[in-house]
Design brief:
The complex is a heterodimer of chains A (about 475) and B (about 100). Chain A is an alpha/beta fold. Chain A has a domain at about 5-225: Amidase signature (AS) enzymes. Chain A contains 15 helices and eleven strands. Chain A has helices at about 10-15, 20-40, 50-60, 100-105, 150-155, 175-180, 215-225, 265-280, 300-315, 330-340, 345-360, 365-385, 410-415, 420-425, 455-465, and strands at about 45, 70, 110-115, 160-165, 180-185, 205-210, 255, 285-290, 390-395, 430-435, 440-445. In chain A, helix 4 (about 100-105) links the parallel strand 2 (about 70) and strand 3. In chain A, helix 7 runs antiparallel to helix 15 (about 455-465), helix 9 (about 300-315) crosses helix 11 (about 345-360) and helix 9 (about 300-315) crosses helix 12. Chain B is mainly alpha-helical and about 100 residues long. Chain B has a domain at about 5-35: Histone, subunit A, CATH 1.10.20. Chain B is built from three helices and two strands. In chain B, strands 1-2 form a two-stranded antiparallel ribbon. Chain B starts with a helix and ends in an 8-residue tail after the last strand. The chains are: A alpha/beta (about 475), B mainly alpha (about 100). Chains A and B meet through helix 9, helix 10, helix 11 and helix 12 of A and helix 1 and helix 2 of B.
Chain lengths: ~475, ~100
């Protein structure tokens, strides 16, 4: 029956009607995992089928009826190791679970498995995992994007119904675009970061990877809301985003920044963008060309802020508390030996970059400067939103690239060029499938004002319905 | 270009040890990345405040009531070495 290919909201309806049984869903999922996960390698760990079934039965009368989601490997669960795709945390088992996971379970959901990621979520291809790369289900020679590549690939391959990911500079939206699924990055602070392993604290947020926009609304309704365990979570009451969905953009103005559709996208992608604009007008919206000239500064701003915060956050891996210890005479040598042994090359590069940017004599020139440019980037968006209701553009500059294609760190960083600015500005954004380029999925990104999730998802739903 | 002395200092601050080969690669990567990042200096930021991702929200207090904390055995469970209920580390100061 391929129930594993259906969105969660549809399965919940079928289960409520008694048209299908829970074990049929789980059986289809298991069959898909057996058939595909060896080649895709989306998962780092899987729940025992019997346990999942037992858990699901106990929850069959709840809101989520025992349906499982996949959880990115940097989000803490009690059931699985939280490795962050790193040798350093290969044996690490969290003594607590993330608030987002706890809320999913309390609503009657379960965790089906843990997905692969670039080490500590640093990367755009899921090639930087210590446990081997994840492949794109559309073409196994290509990357799924990253860093939530395992979560995106699992949903695309039908080996997960939906998944949690994390987005620091685009790590939910870019893999969603490359795998042809829906990826939502909520407003910074809307979802608790408690239990999300810290990378860059002023940017990190848990997001969702789903088969459609309705599922994004469903998952967000469950995981969002203020949390006393995270003092940077916004004191926003829990709300039902699904019931607020109104797929209607009549009379709205949609801004298309020229910086988000540069000529280098290529003819096929540019034609697709023209089609998106035509669809907006067919739906009764108005397209306005806008310009966000600071876009070109988003990349250096992001990498300075994110690397600096990462170098501080990752200082906790000192060979004392977190499982892996190297050999050294005295504490300092032991700490350096542990970190040198545990971290992979990209993580080391970012720690070095961040340490440099924060070091005496360079702070004002690098980190300080970047945090100020970040203010200007945010102001540019605020200004744009006085004229347009939301912003539309490509999610990523190209469809999925080949495994091993981008060895130069700067070239890899550039694949996040359209997702970085809104992350820096703490804004919500969603990537939906926008069509194909070269036979591969190509993502359409919508960016809205702070805390506009109910409207943003409504606009996304209107476009999703029109494009499918 | 980052010189040897700076690179060594950053390595010590970062708690990392690079082999001579890795160090050369790191020097090249960081030099290129930082040269590209010079671009930021083009943007005038004289009277600009650093960004606040929470838009002015302050003082997120929690109820000041005692509650159970992580039990000691769980807090130590991931430690590579413990002794008598404590984290065990090599000496910090030489004799």
């Amino acid at each position: 029956m391929d129930l594993n290919e259906r969105p969660v909201h549809e399965l919940l309806e079928l289960l409520a009607q008694g048209a299908i049984r829970l074990e049929e869903v789980l059986a289809d999922l298991e069959a898909a995992i057996r058939a595909r996960d060896q080649e895709v390698h989306a998962y780092l760990a899987l729940a025992e089928q019997e346990e999942l079934l037992r858990d699901a039965y106990a929850k069959s009368q709840t809101l989520l009826r025992g349906l499982p989601i996949a959880v990115k490997g940097n989000i803490c669960t009690l059931e699985f190791p939280t490795t962050c795709g790193s040798r350093l945390l290969e044996q690490y088992r969290s003594p607590y679970e993330a608030t987002a996971v706890r809320r999913w379970k309390e609503a009657g959901g379960t965790v089906g498995g843990i997905t692969n990621l670039d080490e500590f979520a640093m990367g755009s291809s899921t090639e930087h995992s210590a446990f081997g790369p994840t492949r794109n289900p559309w073409d196994l020679g290509r990357v799924p994007g990253g860093s939530s590549g395992g979560s995106a690939a699992a949903v695309a391959a039908g080996t997960a119904l939906a998944a949690l990911g994390s987005d620091t500079g685009g790590s939910v939206r870019q893999p969603a675009a490359l795998c042809g699924v829906v990826g939502l990055r909520p407003t910074y602070g809307l979802v608790s970061r408690f239990g999300l392993v810290s990378f860059a604290s002023s940017l990190d947020i848990i997001g969702t990877l789903t088969r459609d926009v309705r599922d994004a609304a469903l998952l967000l309704s469950i995981i969002a809301g203020g949390d006393p365990q995270d003092s940077t979570s916004l004191p926003v009451p829990v709300q039902d985003y699904t019931s607020q969905l109104r797929p209607d953009i009549r009379g709205l103005t949609v801004g298309v920044p020229k910086e988000y559709v540069p000529g280098q996208l290529g003819a096929e992608a540019l034609a697709l963008v023209d089609r998106w604009k035509a669809v907006v007008e067919e739906l009764g919206g108005r397209v306005e060309e806008i310009t966000l000239p600071l876009t070109e500064y988003a990349l250096p701003t992001y990498y300075l802020v994110a690397s600096a915060e990462a170098s501080a956050n990752l200082a906790r891996y000192d060979g004392v508390r977190y499982t892996l210890r190297g050999v050294g005479r005295g504490a300092a040598e032991m700490i350096a030996a542990s970190r040198t042994l545990g971290f992979g090359p990209e993580v080391k590069r970012r720690i070095m970059l961040g340490t440099y940017a924060l070091s005496a004599g360079f702070f004002a020139r690098y980190y300080g400067k970047a945090q100020k440019v970040r203010t200007l980037i945010a102001q540019e968006f605020t200004q744009a939103f006085t004229r347009v209701d939301f912003i539309l553009g490509a999610t990523a500059p190209s469809p999925a690239f080949r495994v091993g294609e981008k060895v130069d760190p700067l070239a890899m960083y550039l694949s996040d060029i359209f997702t970085l600015p809104s992350a820096l500005a703490a804004l919500p954004a969603v990537s939906i499938p926008g069509g194909k380029v070269g036979g591969l999925p190509f993502g359409l990104q919508l960016i809205g004002p702070r805390l506009s999730e109910a409207r943003l998802l409504s606009w996304a739903l209107a476009l999703e319905e029109a494009l499918s | 270009m980052i010189d040897d002395e700076t690179l060594e200092r950053i390595e010590t601050l970062a708690g990392l040890r690079l082999s001579p080969q890795q160090r050369e690669k790191m020097r090249q990567d960081l030099s290129r990345i930082l040269a590209y990042f010079q671009k930021l200096q083009e943007v005038p930021t004289d009277s600009v405040q650093p960004f606040d991702p929470l838009a002015g929200q302050t003082n997120a207090w929690r109820e000041d009531v005692p509650r159970p904390s992580l039990p000691r055995d769980q807090a130590l469970a991931n430690a590579p070495a413990t002794r008598e209920g404590h984290f065990f580390v090599p000496p910090v100061f030489e004799e």
